[in-house]
């Protein structure tokens, strides 16, 4: 690691690892929430669909309908296995979409739920997923209002895929988007990172790390509500799912046109996750979370917001990890434990496929 | 065909063809929109999810949010092949959801769009689907506001699956649901039935019937708007997709607690569809449509509504095909060309899998 400092880094020296936009076929990384996913959206979906809301490219779209401000978001879930320590595809299907809505400040009100089942899957398994989904919805205070089921022939699907879409009201005065970030904003993470991806990986591969690593899967609506009660003037929230904290910070930096500097040792990583990542060759900054958020908050409100977060069970380990800076716009830099810095790149794809 | 009359039929003599709710594994019919689909919803999803909106079991949920009345609906699309005469999975993904919203009287405003791609599918194919979806959205006057993409390994999906969810405003004074149907209501179909399912089947199986049969895939929002301009007091609308006209009429009869009598020869079926169905052993009443609706309208408004429908390009061939009756509640009966009657059962599954 060269002993450079953040301000001497040259952003133009950073290039996309490979010109993959010319790739003729879909690869796993196109679903990974990194550069390949972004390219697919920018070069294929956005031009085809048009539309202003989609162009915002947030976790949820902020819309106006009948005079009210709505958040609207969707996610499909293809996680393997269907059940894992700390949750299931049913929990993810609720929390993933509810959290996307929460990141726009909205309290989720209603979910749609579409199942694509593979012929031959046990009805009992479908029931268990549905029950987990229903229980997660009740825990998140959201109602499953409408649904659909399709079946594909054996060998043309993979057990159970679930899609949810969600709608919720955005409170008056709340306007969360990366374009509002300014240098000096404080970066807060709501708790320890990396557990979800490692939990999935360990059960999938039959790995044991001495202690069971449990997914952090949880609905963040209540935590966001507590933060907005301090001030509606938060600048942006993201839940670092696919692509992890690194992808979320890079997306915000790119859209905000600011740099971001974080201090590595301030980012909480559970020792078990850290050890597992070392064994697996993963960087915890790139591992998916399903119950964490990262917030960019005006410096004047940072202490009060942090206090409110710590008073909430899902924010008890919240910490300030860095700040937005005027230097190196669009780039995320980490101060390492050795006093140096390293660039935290946007991931190309996802280290761990099908983790949500 | 016994020369019975509708009024001599004994509804209690009709039973579900098989006690399939005890089936331990998912079969194709669970996605067919018939009895098996209904059983899955009633015995698995509805108890697990709870919720009042879902219990309505309409094509779209009618919700209240922030003081406005919203319709919210979702469908997943797994049609094979992706492109067929008259449309594509992209067209279906828009029209299917837009039409579900229209059946609650709502004009679709925003769509979400979730893709599940199989590793190895050509980016060019994804682009063509996205372009078709975008064009269909513009034609239907709806904006794709938010999206998501997941990728599964080759052999664990089938090219491209699409889910859309949609939201729209329900106009004041409109309350469309089968419980409002009363004996004497007139049953109107907006045009000829059966084209979509037969178009898919013919291209999938490489069949030729002398003339190309083209899917009727179309957005019905404008037609519904024209009908509601005559009177907001329509009782119920359904778009007869999976399970065809037979499933829609049976669902309405069951929920309304009335009987339904239709006159077979009044139901428009294009000769090419009729011929193809004869060859394939299909009943056009059970074949899916993607651009038709069936309406139950108070008798006093029937002529005016029919006239308004015929003035719209998508309702030019609209016809009165029957009525709701007090006899044989929950049962649909067709008067045959020979002067007899036959029971039009709820289908068990779907004759043609993966037609949407």
Automatic annotation (TrEMBL), chains A, B:
Residues 183-328 form the PurM-like C-terminal domain. Pfam families: AIRS (PF00586), AIRS_C (PF02769). InterPro entries: HypE, PurM-like_C_dom, PurM-like_C_sf, PurM-like_N, PurM-like_N_sf. One of its GO terms (biological process) is protein maturation. Gene3D superfamilies: PurM-like C-terminal domain, PurM-like, N-terminal domain. It comes from the Bacteria. Belongs to the HypE family. NCBIfam families: hypE. This is Hydrogenase expression/formation protein HypE. It comes from Streptomyces brasiliensis. The lineage of its organism: Bacteria, Bacillati, Actinomycetota, Actinomycetes, Kitasatosporales.
């Amino acid at each position: 690691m060269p002993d450079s400092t953040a301000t001497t880094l040259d952003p133009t020296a950073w290039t996309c690892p490979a010109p993959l936009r010319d790739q003729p076929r879909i690869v796993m990384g196109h679903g990974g929430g990194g550069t390949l996913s972004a390219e697919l959206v920018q070069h294929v979906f956005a031009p085809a669909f048009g539309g202003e809301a989609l162009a915002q490219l947030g976790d949820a779209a902020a819309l106006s309908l009948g005079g009210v401000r709505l958040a609207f978001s969707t996610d499909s879930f293809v996680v393997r296995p269907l059940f894992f320590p700390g949750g299931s595809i049913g929990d993810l299907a609720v929390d993933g979409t509810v959290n996307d809505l929460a990141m726009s400040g909205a309290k989720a009100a209603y979910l749609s739920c579409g199942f694509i089942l593979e012929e031959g899957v046990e009805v009992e398994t479908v029931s268990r997923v549905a029950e987990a989904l229903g229980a997660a919805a009740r825990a998140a205070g959201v109602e499953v209002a409408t649904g659909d089921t399709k079946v594909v022939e054996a060998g043309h699907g993979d057990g159970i895929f679930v899609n949810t879409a969600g709608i919720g009201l955005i409170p008056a005065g709340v306007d969360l988007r990366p374009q509002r970030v300014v240098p000096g904003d404080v970066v807060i993470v709501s708790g320890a990172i990396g557990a979800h991806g490692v939990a999935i990986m360990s059960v999938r591969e039959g790995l044991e790390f001495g202690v069971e690593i449990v997914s952090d899967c949880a609905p963040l609506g209540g935590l966001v509500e507590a933060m907005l009660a301090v001030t509606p003037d938060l600048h942006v929230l993201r839940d670092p799912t696919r692509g992890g904290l690194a992808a979320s910070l890079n997306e915000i930096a790119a859209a905000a046109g600011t740099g971001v500097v974080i201090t590595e040792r301030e980012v909480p990583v559970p020792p078990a996750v850290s050890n597992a990542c070392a064994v697996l060759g993963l960087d915890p900054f790139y591992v998916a979370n399903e119950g964490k958020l990262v917030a960019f908050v005006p410096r004047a409100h940072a202490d009060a917001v942090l206090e409110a977060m710590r008073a909430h069970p899902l924010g008890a380990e919240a910490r300030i990890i860095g700040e937005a800076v005027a230097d190196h716009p669009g780039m995320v830099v980490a101060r390492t434990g050795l006093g140096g810095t390293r660039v935290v790149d946007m991931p190309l794809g996802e280290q761990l496929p099908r983790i949500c």
